[in-house]
Design brief:
By secondary structure, this protein is mainly α. The protein has 6 helices and no strands.
Length: 112
């Protein structure tokens, strides 16, 4: 069963852009993925822990997941995955759709 879709909100994007001093243009379709930098992942993880707003957590987690995927070494990838996994487990109800989307449970051939 597919979880309820929770999408990034404009308000959350605008506030996070300001808080993290990240570019923010209206034409950016995948804002968290377009502006996060894998080398700044610790800054994003630290900021995530300060958030109380679920919409901001959804937006920032999308950027964190993308930044994790592009770590320079396998060792860094594994280290960051452990931190991200902990946050996803803690806030599972908030991120159920994000997990579903990134895990691609809807495809039949897992190797894709």
């Amino acid at each position: 069963m597919e979880p309820i879709i929770r999408c990034p909100t404009r308000k959350a994007i605008d506030e996070l852009a300001q808080e993290l001093n990240l570019p923010n243009e209206e034409w950016m379709q995948d804002w968290p993925i377009e502006v996060t930098n894998p080398s700044d992942i610790d800054r994003y993880l630290d900021h995530y822990k300060t958030l109380a707003d679920d919409d901001k957590k959804i937006v920032l987690m999308e950027g964190i997941i993308d930044a994790t995927e592009y770590q320079l070494t396998e060792a860094l990838f594994i280290k960051k995955c452990d931190k991200v996994k902990s946050l996803l487990e803690k806030d599972f109800q908030i991120h159920a759709y994000t997990i579903y989307y990134w895990a691609r449970f809807d495809i039949e051939n897992v190797e894709e």
